[in-house]
C-alpha cells in the first residue's frame, strides 16, 4: 500500500508518466421500442423489455497528474487483449517516455507474461522494459485511481440503453475526448501518513516487544 501511495506523491515528470490502469465490463442492453419523451412534470419513460447485445470489456489507462485517459472496448478480457491495449498505450500515447510508472491490480491477465503470449519474445521484452509496475495490494484495489475514472464513466456515459457495440464505442470515444480536452485531473489526498493513522489495524503491533 505504501509503495503505491509513494508513487502518488511524486511530482509530474513527462519522462516517467504515472499511469493507473484498470478494466471494467458493460452489458449492452438495447431498447425494443421507442421511449416516451420527457414532458412537463414527467421524466422520459422506457419500456421494461430490452434486447441483449452482448458483454464487452472496457480497458482504461489514466494519467491523473496530466488529466489524460485512454479507453478501449474489446470483446474479451484475455491476456492477449491486455497486452495489445498496453502496447497501444506505450507506443501511441507515451512513445517518448523513458519508462511508464504503472499502477494496476493483481488480476491474472495483468502481468508481463501476457506480452509473451501475445507477441514474439523480442517485442514482449521491449514492451516489458518500458514499464515500472507497482501492483495494488490484495483487497486494496481502491488505491488504483483508474477505478475513479471507471466510476465516472459509468455514471456519465453508460447508464442508458444502447443499440450495440458501435454505439458503446462512440459514446466512450466522445466521453474520453471531452474529459481529455478539459484535462480533468484527480486530486488524490490519501497519504502514507493517513494510512498509518486510519489503517493502523493493518500494521503489526510492537507494543509487547
Number of domains: 1
Spans of at least 5 consecutive residues with low confidence: none
Q: Which structural category fits the helices and strands?
A: alpha/beta
What level of helicity do the residues show? 25-40%
Spatial order of the strands in the main sheet?
Answer: 3-2-1-4-5
CATH topology: Nucleotidyltransferase, domain 5
Overall mean pLDDT stands at: 90
Distance linking N and C termini = 25 Å
Which of globular, elongated, flat, extended, rod-shaped describes the shape? globular
**What's the total number of strands?**
5
Tell me the fraction of residues in β-strands, as a range: 15-25%
* CATH superfamily descriptor: Ribonuclease H-like superfamily/Ribonuclease H
- Radius of gyration from the CA trace? 20 Å
What top-tier CATH class fits best?
Alpha Beta
* Largest sheet geometry: 5 strands, mixed
Number of helices: 7
CATH architecture term: 2-Layer Sandwich
The H-and-E topology, N to C, reads as: HEEEHEHHEHHH
Amino acid at each position: 500500500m505504501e509503495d503505491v501511495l509513494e508513487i502518488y506523491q511524486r511530482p509530474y515528470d513527462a519522462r516517467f508518466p504515472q499511469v493507473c490502469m484498470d478494466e471494467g465490463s458493460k452489458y449492452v442492453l438495447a431498447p425494443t421500442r421507442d421511449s416516451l419523451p420527457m414532458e412537463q412534470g414527467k421524466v422520459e419513460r422506457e419500456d421494461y423489455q430490452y434486447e441483449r447485445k452482448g458483454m464487452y470489456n472496457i480497458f482504461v489507462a489514466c494519467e491523473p497528474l496530466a488529466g489524460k485517459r485512454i479507453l478501449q472496448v474489446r470483446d474479451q478480457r484475455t491476456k492477449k487483449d491486455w497486452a495489445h491495449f498496453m502496447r497501444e498505450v506505450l507506443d501511441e500515447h507515451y512513445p517518448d517516455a523513458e519508462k511508464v510508472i504503472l499502477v494496476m491490480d493483481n488480476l491474472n491477465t495483468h502481468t508481463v507474461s501476457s506480452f509473451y503470449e501475445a507477441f514474439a519474445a523480442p517485442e514482449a521484452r521491449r514492451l516489458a522494459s518500458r514499464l515500472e509496475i507497482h501492483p495494488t495490494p490484495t483487497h486494496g484495489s481502491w488505491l488504483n485511481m483508474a477505478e475513479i475514472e471507471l466510476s465516472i464513466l459509468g455514471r456519465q456515459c453508460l447508464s442508458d440503453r444502447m443499440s450495440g457495440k458501435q454505439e458503446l464505442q462512440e459514446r466512450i470515444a466522445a466521453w474520453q475526448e471531452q474529459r481529455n480536452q478539459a484535462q480533468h485531473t484527480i486530486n488524490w489526498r490519501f497519504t502514507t501518513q493517513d494510512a498509518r493513522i486510519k489503517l493502523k489495524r493493518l500494521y503489526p503491533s510492537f507494543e509487547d516487544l
